[in-house]
Amino acid sequence: MLLSCHQGRSDVKICTNLMSSSGKSKHWQQALSVLEVMRDGDLVPDVISFCAASSACEKGQQWSQALRALEAMQDAKVSPDAIAFNSFVSACEAGEQWQRALVLLEDMRNEDLLPHLITHNAAISACGNCKQWQQSLSLLEMMRQNDLVPNVVTYSASISACEKCGQWQQAIHLLKMTRNTGVLPNVITYNAAVSHCEKG
């Protein structure tokens, strides 16, 4: 199938499907090869193609390669949509690139795209993974200001960020907030809070 992409007898959709399949089997190199063949040949990758390549890299734990797909998209003058930004922010989460995740959130706003729940959750997790608990809480507050309703994933990621930095009072406060806002804490939420109390 890679040959057919190269020969131009296929279309963008088939090549994109091949990249998605490569991602599911964690063959990120193959996904990037397909993207490269498309760009070198007569096929013009679309936003879905670039997302498929990025997702394949993320699943293969190659976050830097995933973010290179964003650069390739920009070079090709293809405008990322909200789904593309979600994919790239998720790559930042996997690669613990919290600053890059925040830049991408700002880029979304500059493109008049509103980051939604998935985007914020990934950015909060990226900050939490890097022990940037204040940034995680700032993003949580930003969600409220933008009328986005945090869910259990949001609160779990925020509590985990506080737990990693020894901010037990903040973690307990967030746990109480879940109940006050009608979000039911799950095992992950409680584990993050309890783990913090054990350390404290």
Characterization of this structure:
The protein is 74% helix and 0% strand. The chain is built from twelve helices and no strands. The longest helix has 13 residues, at 12-24. It is elongated.
Order of helices and strands: HHHHHHHHHHHH
Helix content: over 70%
Number of helices: 12
Count of β-strands: 0
Average of per-residue pLDDT values: 84
Largest beta sheet, briefly?
A: none
Q: Specify the oligomeric state.
A: single chain
What attributes characterize this protein structure?
200 residues, mainly alpha, single chain, 74% helix
Give a quick summary of the entry.
This protein has 200 residues and is mainly α.
Topology readout:
Blueprint lengths: L1 H6 L4 H13 L3 H13 L6 H13 L3 H13 L6 H13 L3 H13 L6 H13 L3 H13 L6 H13 L3 H13 L6 H13 L1
